[in-house]
Amino acid sequence: MKKHRILVLMHPEMVPPETLRGFTQDEMNLWKTEYDVVTTLKNLGHEVVPVGVQDELLPVGQAVRDLEPHVVFNLLEEFHGKATYDQHVVSYLELLRMPYTGCNPRGLVLARGKALSKKLLAYHRIRVPAFGVYPIGRKVRRSTRLAFPLIVKSLIEHASLGIARASVVDSDDKLAERVAFVHEHIGTDAIAEQYIEGRELYVGVLGNERLQVLPTWELTFEGIPDDAPRIATAKVKHDPAYQARRGIFQGPAENIPAALEMHITRVCKRIYRILELSGYARIDFRLTEAGELYFLEANPNPEIAQSEEFASAADYAGIEYPELLQKIVNLGMRRRH
Fold first, then answer.
1. I need a surface site. Which of 138, 151, 258, 322 has the fewest CB within 10 A?
2. Which pairing describes strands 199-207 and 279-287: parallel, antiparallel, or unpaired?
3. Beta-carbon contacts of residue 214 (< 8 Å; ≥ 6 apart)
């Protein structure tokens, strides 16, 4: 395997230390992805340079000129504190004619907008929940086609930011209250969509033109009270202690009929191409008891820490973590051509 110079872009506070010695688990959770990626790429023999990027592009251009990397490994999820600005960093890399890992700017724009992605997929007859968008400064008026219960989210933020049990609402008063919460505390427009009762499925996809769909992964809620919604709140996604207390696990989806697995694979490839994704992505679904598959959202450049669902699904498919990262690097390198 050829060794490469790899520039890894990340938030300045996420630049990992050389060793884990002396850090608590909570501290390590903050930069576990960055540590896993940098350490694994170094162990593969690559020359790896992490660079923190937050408020200006000058450090990126300077590092590209100084290091002359073969590829940039992009771990940025925001710029200037805004999730929707991440595509501008990638656009800058394209202007520099620099190969990079992960999703292209067009795919980031289409996938980050939860309403836009659902409109595009509904046009292509992929089942999506009914939804309404509530911009900041507008009065909350629920369309008659939106039946309760609804789940209220940020229109553009990801990683379950702002999602809690209170996000699932069953009245117009609660809808208005939760929309106001998103406006005031998250600082974005809100989207309210039909709450789909069912199984929470995640499917990873790798590739640019030729696509590899990873095994279907499931988030299970064994210790959640019967009257509580089964949703991926911020605590469910990012609090290991809460996960252990509540019996929340992720693992291969069981009892999925072969015909449904084939359908999921076909739908994932269609979604990936419709949204113009590239590199790697995770596509989230709800599966009802009746076997209806609802698209929830697509996550370009998803979490790829070794312990998280994307890498776990890859490992289940026989792709060990170093091989997974090397595949992602190779896909980025092919942008040169």
1. 258
2. antiparallel
3. 203, 204, 205, 206, 310, 313, 314, 316, 317
| Nearest in space to 266 (alpha carbons), one of 168, 125, 92 | 125
Q: Is the pTM of this model over 0.85?
A: yes
pLDDT in the model for residue 22: 82
Q: In what order do the strands lie in the sheet with 190-194?
A: 131-134, 190-194, 150-154, 168-169
Nearest of 110, 143, 35, 159 to residue 271 by alpha carbon: 110
**pLDDT mean over 79-93:** 90
* Mean model confidence pLDDT for the chain: 91
- DSSP H stretches of helix in 160-212: 172-181
User: Residue for token digits 């020359």?
Assistant: 47
pLDDT digits (tens, 9 = 90+) for 245-298: 667 788 999 999 999 999 999 999 999 999 999 999 999 999 999 999 999 999
What domains sit in the chain, N to C, each tagged with a CATH number?
5-101 (3.40.50.20), 128-194 (3.30.1490), 197-336 (3.30.470.20)
CB 193 within 8 A of CB 131: yes
